[in-house]
Design a protein that fits this description.
Pfam family, one: ASD1_dom
Helix content: 10-25%
Largest sheet: 13 strands, mixed
Number of strands: 35
Distance between the termini: 47 Å
Bound molecules: alpha-L-arabinofuranose
Family: Belongs to the glycosyl hydrolase 51 family.
EC number: 3.2.1.55
Catalytic activity: Hydrolysis of terminal non-reducing alpha-L-arabinofuranoside residues in alpha-L-arabinosides
Protein name: non-reducing end alpha-L-arabinofuranosidase
Radius of gyration: 27 Å
């Protein structure tokens, strides 16, 4: 018997069983909501890990465009038949000593001395981020900064396919020869699709020209913004309708040491002024080294805020609290020197929210966004712990609340959801009346079932929970063998019924990490995988999306024998009311390997639509995964479901190893 036949016969058997015996009754009190569900409930966690930003959502195709990587020509190959000694030199303005030249944020550039006529005489090839994704017929914008020193040199930009053949080209003739730096751009179209393309720059003429910020962007960025983001990746987020976007991480907020911490003010303005730092994921894992991983900050704070606005998500920036990563250097800023860090937080609120007459509101307006971003919540520290964190947090809390009493602060409970460090922080944070406590759990799949009642006993008053980073690990944390398989996703779906049921306590939740480049990742599992041209959502993505687009506004009780369905018969369930849509939303995970039938009694309703919608996510194979080739292997299927409008119930026939979401229009 094949799998489909087997499933159909099991369902038929279950249906006839259902006719023979009444199904156990599960009661939903539709007219008695027990808690609000915050609009922020389900969100996303973004970090520049796994080439998530540079080499990922930031659509720049040239790697090391500014020659600021530790090895200034990393990513570039210089070659040619007519090479001469010193024809390509790396120069450093910061070292030049002349104040007119000093550019401390982006000191390096290259000096090209050309005496060439043809491609092949002197060429610079950029390999991109594990190649460049090039699309047939699409426009590409090639831009750079130049300074003509002498002579006449034209620049040719060729897109190359994997075999090195041109698939698009343009010519840039420097317009100004006044010996100053200028920006110039040309555009041209590609004549082929190539996932592993390259960019070749070659020179025609004789002379000397300085070059910096050599850049290539596709036309089809998100909303067509020049220098913007990969539209296919943003679309995956937009489709989730996330309640918030947490940015920019993660450990990169803390930095390996304090010099490499994330500093939002350095991510604003012209890309050439944004000082690059080494990405801590470059060298963090000896088993997954990524020596070409740097943060250019082309995707900076303005762009993050803009992204949130575009997709209707609340911005949730996380700032360094005066502590570097405690797994790395654990550097601390002395308490009497914390002011600049606190000021960064105060200024960020002004940048996000204040009117254009203020210092930082004006900066926002000058950058093209006079309208405030309406920031309501801000994180202080990422995975920081110990009394040193509490001391620093207290200083932030006092200063921020004095100026912005309504700003809610996300506070760290460390790296783990239990243990001494967690208990210490949780106790202290609650005593400090922390607004939101950020809990992280990277745990085995079974942990998620065992902890479905975790929040049932949390205090209803006082601090709320932000389940800020979590994902079921099919192997173990930081193992390269972790898979985004259906087992993990299904157990996460079951666990999330416990989050929803406890929305009075848990006000925000996000899976982590978000993106991974299949050719350059450090950490797995991840919600969404990409290569240079493609993107796919994992089974975990579809679980997150089902929750997020079926959020509801109020928690309803959903009980069998007066108990929440939280593991009985391997069923996990929650219910919500969506006030705006006037719909009941039921979520049920059946983690068992048998069909189970439940009669869901919708108490307190006056009228029900006879047909609801069922979104069914299931797979018989718990090891099933999605892939570029089979992107929707595990993905939801929508089908109608009948409602008994007289007796006010819906019968759910729950397939083995399935997650079902049902929406039914109702009047009360
Ligand atoms: O999500 C990956 C990493 O896990 C984050 O950077 C960090 O906060 C956590 O340890």
């Amino acid at each position: 018997m094949n799998v489909i036949t087997k499933t159909v016969s099991l369902l038929l058997a279950a249906a006839s069983f259902a006719q023979a015996q009444p199904a156990p009754v599960v009661r939903v009190n539709v007219n008695q909501p027990v808690a609000d569900i915050q609009p922020t409930m389900w969100g996303v966690f973004f970090e520049d890990i796994n080439f998530g930003a540079d080499g990922g959502i930031y659509a720049e195709l040239v790697k090391n465009r500014s020659f600021e990587f530790f090895k200034p020509l990393m990513g570039w190959t210089v070659r040619g038949k007519k090479r001469t000694e010193g024809d390509i030199l790396v120069q450093n303005r910061a070292e030049s000593g002349t104040s007119s030249e000093s550019q401390s944020n982006n000191p390096r550039y290259i000096r090209v001395s050309a005496n060439s006529a043809n491609a092949g005489d002197l060429e610079l090839i950029n390999e991109g981020f594990r190649g460049m994704g090039i699309k047939n017929g699409l426009r590409y914008d090639f831009a750079l900064m130049y300074r003509v020193q002498s002579g006449n040199v034209k620049l040719h930009a060729d897109l190359l396919d994997a075999k090195g053949q041109p698939i698009g080209s343009g010519t840039l003739t420097p317009e100004k020869t006044d010996g100053q730096w200028h920006k110039q751009q040309i555009s041209f179209k590609s004549s082929a699709t190539e996932p592993k393309g390259k960019l070749k720059v070659w020179f025609e003429g004789t002379g000397v020209v300085d070059l910096d910020m050599i850049s290539l962007f596709p036309e089809d960025t998100w909303k067509g913004r020049p220098g913007g983001m990969r539209a296919d990746m943003v679309q995956m987020l937009a489709d989730m309708k996330p309640g918030f976007v947490r940015f920019p991480g993660g450990c990169i907020v803390e930095g390996h040491d304090l010099t490499q911490r994330y500093q939002w003010k350095k991510t604003l303005g012209a890309p050439e002024d944004r000082q690059l730092v080494i990405n801590r994921w470059n060298f963090e894992f000896g088993h997954r080294p990524t020596p070409d991983y740097f943060q250019t900050f082309g995707l900076g704070f303005l762009e993050y805020f803009q992204l949130c606005e575009d997709i209707g998500a609340e911005p949730l920036p996380i700032l360094n609290c005066g502590m570097a990563c405690q797994f790395n250097t654990a550097e601390l800023v002395p308490l009497d020197q914390l002011d600049p860090y606190v000021q960064d937080a105060i200024d960020l609120i002004e940048f996000a929210n204040a009117d254009v007459t203020t210092k930082w509101g004006k900066v926002r307006a000058d950058l093209g966004h006079p309208k405030p971003f309406n920031l309501k919540v801000l994180g202080v520290g990422n995975e920081n712990w110990g009394p040193q964190y509490i001391e620093r947090l207290a200083i932030f809390q006092k200063a921020i609340k004095a100026k912005y009493p309504n700003m809610r602060l996300v506070c760290s409970s460390g790296t783990d959801p239990d243990g001494e460090r967690f208990d210490f922080l949780n106790g202290k944070l609650r005593a400090m009346n922390a607004d939101l406590i950020d809990e992280h759990y990277y745990r085995r799949p079974e942990w998620f079932l065992q902890n479905v009642k975790r929040y049932d006993t949390y205090p209803r008053n006082g601090s709320k929970v932000f389940a800020g980073e979590w994902a079921a690990q099919s192997d173990k944390t930081v193992s390269v063998n972790n898979k985004n398989n259906w087992l993990c996703a299904l157990n996460e779906a079951a666990f999330m019924t416990g989050l929803e049921r406890n929305a009075a306590v848990v006000q925000m939740a996000s899976y982590a990490p978000l993106f991974a480049n299949a050719d350059a990742w450090q950490w797995t599992p991840d919600l969404i995988w990409v290569d240079n041209l493609r993107v796919y959502g994992t089974p975990n993505y579809y679980v997150q999306k089902l929750y997020s687009v079926n959020k509801g506004t109020h928690v309803l009780t959903m009980t069998q024998n007066n108990e929440p369905l939280a593991g009985q018969d391997s069923l996990y369930a929650s219910a919500a009311w969506d006030k705006a849509a006037g719909e009941i939303i039921l979520k049920v995970a059946n983690v068992s390997d048998k069909v189970q039938v439940r009669q869901i009694q919708l108490d307190g309703t006056k009228k029900l639509d006879p047909t609801g919608k069922l979104f069914l996510l299931k797979n018989d194979n718990l090891n099933a995964v999605n892939s570029f080739e089979n992107a929707t292997n595990v993905s939801p299927v929508e089908q109608p479901i009948s409602v008994d409008t007289k007796k006010k119930y819906v019968t759910m026939t729950l397939a083995p190893k399935s997650f079902s979401v049902v929406r039914i229009k109702a009047m009360m």
